[in-house]
């Protein structure tokens, strides 16, 4: 599937923390930066996410804020 | 200000496209990947964003989806 | 690509309204209900969306509110 | 209350999964498609959601992504 | 309609700025604080929003970030 | 850091409810209105949020819906 989302960053799962409803997925990007995603536990299981899984972190442009120092 | 947002990526503005209400801001991350942000035109002006501005792309973890091949 | 998003509804583009930065895409679901999506103009062009295009409307579960009468 | 949200789909609750903070609500749309919503446990309790409750799934247009095959 | 959204703040429209696709609506809260909302132009017209309209600003709890000094 | 977010409301933490993955933070605004935020447990801990903490509730304008009676 091709997506309208403008931000699709390739990375590798570093850690999955599972709750009753949601899971927290920590993704390591090339270069060492990290992204954190909260998805449903059902989705994390359905995608079989675990340490080392190759994934894309996907963000809609309207969900990206900007900050400056 | 220190933020709850888990995803704060440093980059440099590559391009700003301005509409009547919103602006599209393209941010170049170190390593060459790009992120796109939609913010209000008023915010883009208030932050004085232009090509070369040093910025942070900020994303709340609940707004990060995951995809796999 | 397989997505974590829990809501993926198949439909057909009914109308695209294009602004300077964003496009509004009206999608007709089977049965006649409609969904409206706002994506960047660049995404709408990149997906070549036009009346009749077959698309998926994709929504992260954390972005679905619930109302009752 | 009349809402600005462009996407208001009527359905029936199929299942509620309750965590410490959030609840997952699965909604069956007419025709058999399903939508999943994550709301706070407090909201799910306040709306007295349970299997069979008639509800609306509400999504802001800016939270609808588009995908194509 | 009763909503799952945890944040429903009453206010009065101070200004509407209209673009091709979206409208920016500035809302004055009691006490003088302001909130800004971006909704589709179609929604702003359908709700007949104009200076002085009494409205609710509605935000899903998962869309509220927290910052500290 | 200066943010693009248009909605930054000062308040005081009234209550923190902690789950396995997320925390619910109830914020009291001056005047007595309340806002509820869901952030990751890790963020709540990293910001050391507890009853009485002075915080800002931050909302991107594109995440504010509007309702009328």
- CATH A-level architecture of chain A: Beta Barrel
Compute the average pLDDT of chain A.
96
Radius of gyration of chain A: 13 Å
The CATH H-level superfamily of chain A is: RNA polymerase II/Efflux pump adaptor protein, barrel-sandwich hybrid domain
CATH names the topology of chain A as OB fold (Dihydrolipoamide Acetyltransferase, E2P)
Domain unit count of chain A: 1
- Rough outline of chain A: globular
Number of helices of chain A: 1
Tally of strands of chain A = 6
**Could you give the order of the helices and strands of chain A?**
EEEEHEE
Q: Give the helix/strand class of chain A.
A: mainly beta
Report the biggest beta sheet of chain A as strand number plus sense, adding barrel if it closes. Answer: 4 strands, antiparallel
The low-pLDDT segments of chain A are none
InterPro entries (chains A, B, C, D, E, F): Mo/tungstate-bd_C_term_dom, Mop_domain, Transp-assoc_OB_typ1
Organism (chains A, B, C, D, E, F): Methanosarcina spelaei
GO cellular component, one term (chains A, B, C, D, E, F): plasma membrane
Protein name (chains A, B, C, D, E, F): Transporter
Describe this structure in words.
Six copies of one chain form a homohexamer. The first copy, chain A, has 69 residues and is mainly β. The first copy, chain A, has one helix at 41-46, and strands at residues 2-3, 7-18, 22-28, 34-40, 54-59, 65-68. Chain A has a single domain, classed as OB fold (Dihydrolipoamide Acetyltransferase, E2P) (Beta Barrel), CATH 2.40.50. Helices cover 9% and strands 55% of the residues of chain A. Chain A has a four-stranded antiparallel sheet with strand order 4-3-2-5. The first copy, chain A, starts with a strand and ends with a strand. Chain D binds chain E through residues 1-6, 37-40, 42-44, 46-47, 56, 58, 60-62, and chain E through 1-6, 37-40, 42-44, 46-47, 56, 58, 60-62. β6 of chain C pairs antiparallel with β1 of chain E, so a sheet runs across the interface. Chains A, B, C, D, E, F: Its main location: membrane. Chains A, B, C, D, E, F: It comes from Methanosarcina spelaei. Chains A, B, C, D, E, F: This is Transporter. Chains A, B, C, D, E, F: It holds the Pfam family TOBE.
């Amino acid at each position: 599937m091709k997506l309208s989302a403008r931000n699709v960053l390739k990375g590798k799962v570093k850690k999955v923390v599972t709750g009753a409803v949601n899971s927290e997925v920590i993704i390591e990007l090339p270069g060492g930066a990290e992204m954190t995603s909260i998805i449903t536990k059902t989705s994390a299981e359905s995608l079989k996410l675990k340490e080392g899984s190759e994934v894309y972190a996907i963000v809609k442009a309207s969900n990206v804020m900007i900050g400056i120092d």
